[in-house]
Amino acid sequence: MIRLIDISLELGSFALRSINLEIEDGQYFTILGPTGAGKTRLLEIIAGLQVPDSGEIWIGDKQVNELPPERRHVGFMYQDYLLFPHLSVRKNIAFGLRGQSPGETGSRIADLSGLLKIEDLLNRNVADLSGGEQQRVALARALAPRPRLLLLDEPLSALDPQNRRAVRRELNAIHHQLAMTTIHVTHDFEEALVLSDRIAVINHGEIMQVGAPEDVFRRPTSPFVASFVGVENLYRGEIVREEKGELLGSNSFNAIFQSGPLRLLVVAEYEGPANAAIRPEEITIATEPSHSSALNSIYGTLVDVEARGPLFQLKFDAAVPIVAVLTRQSFASLQLEIGSKAYLSFKASAVHVF
Amino acid sequence: MKKPTLLNLIFSLLGASFVLFLLAPLVKMIFSAHASTLAEALADADVRSAIALTLLCALVAMIIGAILGVPLGYLLARRSFFGKRFIEALVDVPIVIPHPVAGIALLLVFGRQFFGGRFFSNFGLTIVGDVPGIVVAMLFVSAPFLVNAARDGFLRVDPRLENVARTLGYGPLRTFFTIALPLGWRALLSGAIMMWARAISEFGSIVIVTYNPKVASVLIYDRFTTYGLTYALPVAVILVLICLFVFALLRGINLRPGHQVTLI
After folding, report:
1. CA angle A270–A276–A277, rounded 5-degree value
2. In B, which residues are within 8 Å of A69 by CB distance?
């Protein structure tokens, strides 16, 4: 277990304030927050590269405050990978294997390059690698000495969106394969949701909320978390391609998203496990069913109404909870009250699947 | 064709005058010495030993400067500490003070009756009036070039590369030798050659600390005041050609992309 107790750090105008975190062994833990929230500093503190003003860092049953980085056995990967430019790919990966026999080093490099699919790159110069390749090499380098903990600083943000999704899945797969305790820092809530066992949201050097991904996204405990990550209509399920799922554009197609009793028409780019989110303002409410086939139409019961400035937020129960918003005027003209039944409609393209 | 602007016209004229001012004395001097007198000078045992002494002392000064100055450059690039700005300014002082003044200051430390001189006499080394004095004077006036080049070179190495090495089990010293040094070596080499060139051309402080044995610049001065221009000229030409060669070497290193080294 990794424990941070009351970690504080002040550097000029920047500060981390009394950070407390607990990360279980084997967990994939994400620290989510906007740029400049202090995420990288926090990782550097855990790695021993930055000394906090106060607080305790525990790795396993050992307080490591006094241990220099080289004795903490923590793997660290920076956002821009920072491969050693004067060494080949192979030597980069072997860098942390100092003191091992050539045989051990060779087999470790072979294992890792197989796992990360970089066998063909081993003799290349790091300057000739693409962003995605550099990232794999940096990951192999960090994993090589079998660290107790892996720290990833915005590992996907330097990749283009296509690569990002692929690498995200690989990170997930590798994590499950190695069961390596991982702390991943990001500003991207999709990344956090897809990868994490637990999430901590950080802002201005303070932890705002810690919890399972769904809890943090569905039940933000502060206005900041709500506006930064809050998604009221969020569902975990699976994308299934329709039999004659029409191709739309280059690689998207019509599909069905299934999550328990919920079945949604969506526009997807891949099949399999996924999340779906619907913005409340995309949902129209009617008392009569709609007849367009391109629309999702869900029959639900109004269970709660809350005034939010000029809008009303309406909570419906349709086997799953669904939240929609209406202007005061529309709400009045629909003559809805608690217990009323209504049809909630939204386009397939309004469902964000990821 | 582009219309010449007034600025281009005026600035080109002024710039060309300055280039001519730099070029004329050097070119004139090199071509005023006949090949026969150059060969004669090269055959002169005094000239040859002066040039050998100069190159050798400059090399020793450079090596001592590297051993003492590179660590300082690294500290200046990586750490913040009390008095850092003072030290950065101090490193540049030998460049801005008149070199005879530097020579006098060195006499006051390394003269036989002062603590520096007494310390080295324990090891049988006489500084002032002997070869070690030449090295000391060269080191004093030319080390700033190496320290500054080392600092700038290390500043261009991302400290996070060293952080990564630390997390991979490397202590600070091992990290320095495996990351900072190999990545900064071109700047160091360039700074070292710059220091060597500056040491070869030093005169003002050496003439005060150690007149004899004579380094090349002192020999030129000596011949000029004793025998006149004709006798000083061939030696001067040989020294200038050596300096230009070293300088060309330096430019060759600097021309590789991403490794510019400024003089100060």
Report:
1. 140
2. 163, 166-167
